[in-house]
Design goal:
With 380 residues, this protein is mainly α. It is built from 18 helices and 2 strands. The chain has a single domain, classed as ABC transporter involved in vitamin B12 uptake, BtuC (Orthogonal Bundle), CATH 1.10.3470. It is 77% helix and 1% strand.
Length: 380
Amino acid sequence: MVCLEQNSLKEHAIMGRSVGFAIYGVIGLICIGLPFFAESDVVVAVMPPGLSGSTLLHIGILIFLFGYLATSWNVLGGFCGQLSLGHAAFFAIGAYTSSLLYIHFGLTPWVGMLAGAAVAAVVGYGLGYVSFKYGLKGPFFALVTIAFAEILRLLMLYWDFTGGPLGLLIPLTEDSWSDMQFMAKEPYYYMAFGLMIFGILATAKIGSSRFGYYLRAIRESEEAAEALGIHSMRNKMHAAAISAAMTALGGTFYAQYTQYIVPDDVVKIALSIEIILFAVIGGSGLVMGPVVGAFILVPIGEMTRVIFSTAATGVSFVALVNSDIPAVEKFAKYLDYLASGGGGGLALLLYGAILIFVCLVMPRGVLPALKSLQSWGKKS
C-alpha cells in the first residue's frame, strides 16, 4: 500500500513537471513566432487601439529584458536573501562602459558588453566586501546599495566624460551585427529573448549547484549556515559579483536598443524597484518566478501607457468627468498627468495595486501560488 502511494506521488510529480515544461514550451514557441505574425491582419484586428505590430515587438523586448534583469537580481536577492535596492547602478555600469568604449575607441559592443560585466562584477564584489565585512544585511545593506546607486548617478550626471546630464548618443550606423545596431526590431527581439533564456539557464544551474544550496542556507539562517561550515561572507560576495555582472549585460543591450542613455534613466531608483517588483510578484528565489512577474507586469504597464495616453487617444479625464466638485476635478487632472507619463505614468500606479493584491492574497508570489493550486487540485 505504501509503495503504491509512493508510486502515485512520483507519477503526480512527473506529470506536474511535464505539464510545466509543456506550458513553458508553448509560451516559448509563441515568443519565437511572434515577429512572424505580429503584423498579420488577425493580430492587428484583436489588438487594442493605439497598438501596432511594432509596439507589440517592443513590449516583447521589454518583457524579455526585464525578465532577465529580475532573474539577475534573483541571484543575490532571491537565492541569497540580500535585499539590493541599487541594481540600477550595475545596469548603468554595463550601459555606460560599452557605450564609452564604442564611442571613444570604436570597440564593438559585444566586447564592451563583456567589459561592462567585468567592471560590474568587480564593483559588486567590492560593494559586497565593504558591506558584508561589517555585518550589514537587511535594511542596512539595502541603504548601502541605494547610496551607491545615487553616488554613481551624481558622478555620471556631473562628469563630462560620461556626457553629463545630456547623456550619451550612440552613433548610428547601417544594420550591423558587429555594432549591434538594426533598423528593425526583430533582431533586438531575438537578442532579448536569448538574453532571457541565458538568465534562466544560468540561474537554474546556480540554483541546482552546491553554491546555490549555500546561498539558500545563508538566506534561511546565516548563523546556522556558518555553524555547518559555510563561509557566508565569501558566498555572498560571489553572489553579488555574479548578479552585478549579469545585470550589466542587460545594460549594454538597453544602450544599443535605445541608442541613447542618460543618468536619470539608467541609474534611477525606480528602475531598481521595478526589477525587484517583477521578482517578488512572480516569486523570488525561484528560477522562473522573475520571468513570470515580467510577463504579468510589463504588458500591463506598456499597454496602459499606449491605451490611456491622452496624447494617443485625445481623451481627457477632466473632460470625461466634467465635474464642478474641486476634489473630483483635481483627481481627474492628476489622472491626466499620469496618463501623459508624468510621475512615472499609470503603470507604476497599477504596479502598486498589483503588489498590494499579491502581498495579501499570494504572499510568496504568483508562481508558488499556482504550484500550490496545482497540488491542491491533484489531492482533490
